[in-house]
User: Fold this.
Amino acid sequence: MYSIEAMGGLLEQINSPVDLKKLPVKQLGGLADEIRQFILDSVSKTGGHLASNLGAVELTLALHYVYDFKRDKLLWDVGHQCYTHKIITGRKDKFALLRQAGGISGFPNPAESEYDCFTVGHAGTSIATAIGIALGDLKQKKKDKIVALIGDASIVNGTSFEALNNLGLVKRQLLIVLNDNSMAIDATVGAVAKYFSRVRLSQTYEDLRKTTSNILEHMPVIGKTVEEAIERIKKGIRMALPGSQMFESLNIPYFGPVDGHNAESLVQLFKAMGQLEHPAILHVYTSKGKGFKPAGSRPSKFHSTGPFKVNGDSVERPADTGRPSFTSVFGEHLTKLAEKNDKIVAITSAMCDGTGLMDFSKKFSNRFYDVGIAESAAVDIAAGLARSGLRPVVCIYSTFLQRSFDQIFQEVALQNLPVVFCIDRAGVVGSDGPTHHGLLDIGYMRILPNMVLTAPANEVEMKLALEFALGADSPVVIRYPKDLIPPKKFVRTACAKPFKLGKSVFVKKTKGSLIAIVSYGSVLTEALKAAGLLDKEGIAVDVINARFAAPIDEEIVSLLGRGKGIITVEDHNISCGFGSAVLELAAEKMLPVPSCEGKNGGQQLSAIRVLGAPRRLIGHDSRETQLMQAGISAEKIAETARGMIVGK
Ligand SMILES: Cc1ncc(C[n+]2csc(CCOP(=O)(O)OP(=O)(O)O)c2C)c(N)n1
Assistant:
């Protein structure tokens, strides 16, 4: 990597795209080097998306050099590669707090800057939203330029293809820049990835250079049609396997592939392509992790990273706590169970490492399917696997599984197929922020027929829940957070009992208690802490680990009939989650509350309080702070209990 001192101090002069445009184009390469160093310095301190950002520097600079994205529109796909964009649009000084409280988000966010068009975080949205803007602008006779920047893994997403299928609606300029680094988080998979890789192998560096000059030579195409320009371009370049085939079969003018690290030629290309009065694709090759050896050689380890120390060409990461994550416990146990049961197969959507399936994928390569960023297809493939008699385990983050709601309903729940949904990153997720929180899955799962919902509270329960799910004859959801398993002092022997459908476990029974804290999932830890706080104040409470959100254990609501108050706790949106399910069951079974006069020394509570995340955005921060902010904490539980007693 470069040394910032040895550089020209160009970045210091850039506080807006207006400053950028003042630089001679020849200096963009030098500025790109400085920005890479800046990104590396920042991300090594704060953590963040590194490899994709190091690869997209020249592309971003050239786009801003040519267009004016205050007026023109730049649509990011996923948006994790937008750091250069943020740096040059007035947010350079905010990188010390990247993805942290009070700092900037790691994704585009219109609340931060007028240069950000949409809040994004999920893949496959850029082309469709660009089409919408283009159609709107056309109607309003706006002349702004529209650019969608999308990666080679995201363009194969179903939403992207549906959008490409509709690109013909657009009768004006709309440029799609395909940023091809032949990687998703891990290596890209699937037929389109193979096609892109064959095209890549057929191209020498000299071919890329020639293609660039050829495109420039035949553009702009004033007075000529795009088709004519493309024909002339094609004649001038050697294309052993034309990259254009796939897109041209959809009638989308295709240009490239070109070198995505040559800022000067990119500037010329963007100028020329901005003049096309027709949608077009520019295929650009970049290297993920460019300029930083550890990220370049192991891009998946630096896709999203925590803080680290750079030691020349290697890195030092902070020592771990010794406690495994829910994800790793899941991955290990699934692999173990799969050794004994050859019907177990695992499916993921471009998140092999993130969902803890790396070992499984190596050990059982013929029972592992990474289907790329295709969550809906993943679920339907799982439905097919289940129908054929296997035991599919679908491993997808809560936020991305939202994409598959219809498939979960129609092909799984309606057919009552035994698909296991292992929903990782359920709950608040920390620094990725609102686009990535998994706060809706209980809601969208518990309304489905046949669906069983469980949430393990700790390591033992993670294993037991998996064993239960793999033995069930219905679809089962297991949700768990982006977190380490709780320390041993919060693990109770009651949690070692095997899972029984719809049965909760008492983890703390206290004589004379007026309140039961009923927790769902890993928040049992907070429930136990709250019980400890209340104990000290002489307020006796029970603690119940619900284990299931569907079906709900009727025992829980029957407590109301015994004059007890209930506080439910979950790491999920309050309006449609576990607590809501308890309220619904209470309304059905217990209202009006049966008389319980005389119990608990004449006191009677028979009330329910529901604790969970509010229906508002929870900004990027540490997961711990987000839980506090959302009121999913021991303090909030204790405060609620006190209020119930006093309110009596
Ligand atoms: C719908 C959805 N599924 C999964 C993800 C997780 N994810 C974030 S970035 C990424 C890889 C994107 O690859 P690509 O589009 O090629 O961009 P690159 O990182 O290579 O620049 C994935 C799978 C997501 N953001 N959205």
Remarks:
- The first helix runs from residue 17 to 22.
- The pocket of thiamine diphosphate is lined by residues 52, 78, 80-81, 121-123, 151-154, 179, 181, 183-185, 288, 349-350, 373, 375, 400, 403 (CB under 6 Å).
